[in-house]
Amino acid sequence: MTDSPHIATVTAADFESVVIQGSFERPVLVDFWADWCAPCRQLMPILSRLADEFKGQLLLAKVDTEAEQALAAQAGIRSLPTVQLYKDGQPIDQFMGALPEGQIREFLARHISRASDRLLDQARDAMAGGDLSGAAALIERAEREDPDNNRLFVAQVQLKAAEGDADGALAMLERTPLDLADDPELAALRGRLAFSAAAAEAPPTEALTAILAEDPNNSEARYQLAARQVLADDLESALENLLTLLRRDRQYGDDAARKGMLAIFDLLGGSGELVTRYRAKMLSSLY
């Protein structure tokens, strides 16, 4: 099926040697597929491209479940496509369905570390510490050593934002590669930049609070206060203000309240008690 040294077609006869034993040397991603399965065919080129991109840090093993029904049953496969990741002789993680490339990259990133990823992590630490020139140098080094790493784009946008060039960062986000369309870090950054723009021309927090005390229905002041609260990392207060705005003036700013709440969920990583609680409140207000 392929001439790539990083991709193998596996049967019951060599599953033990290629997948089980091979996973002690490097992670093995096992793609259980069938020719009649359209999502399998959709997923196949993405997995193949990623296997080649990781340049030997990962082996992609493909199992045709029509030809290897007993093997698929032994692996507990109940739907197609199913992709399992093996390390040290054991399946340690899996996903089902034809996920977007960005989500597959997130899945792999939990288990496979690239040298350039470590450089980008160092760059983020440098940004957090205010060393923007050091961060830029680390990102440039990562790009020289591994130009195919799509996390470079994420780090470059983050650096642009850290430098205070919000317009430049937003311009880059408009050119986000398709495989990063669902990237949670970019979604969080996009939301934070939107709140930064809203707060840039807003009165101080104390003035906004006074405005709302006199006129609780002032939608602009409520949204601006939420934006300032986001930038101050007071996310629960921001969510409460956006929820109030959603209930009182859904049409404000082209559905800005709902979009703002979703942006904060992204900032919180999409999970956790605060996200669960306010997502339920948002949905009950919408429907």
Automatic annotation (TrEMBL):
NCBIfam families: thioredoxin. The gene is trxA. Keywords: Disulfide bond, Electron transport, Redox-active center, Transport. Residues 6-113 form the Thioredoxin domain. This is Thioredoxin. GO terms for molecular function: protein-disulfide reductase activity. Gene3D superfamilies: Glutaredoxin, Tetratricopeptide repeat domain. GO terms for cellular component: cytoplasm. InterPro entries: Thioredoxin (IPR005746), Thioredoxin-like_sf (IPR036249), Thioredoxin_CS (IPR017937), Thioredoxin_domain (IPR013766), TPR-like_helical_dom_sf (IPR011990). It comes from the Bacteria. Belongs to the thioredoxin family. It comes from Halochromatium glycolicum. One of its GO terms (biological process) is response to stress.
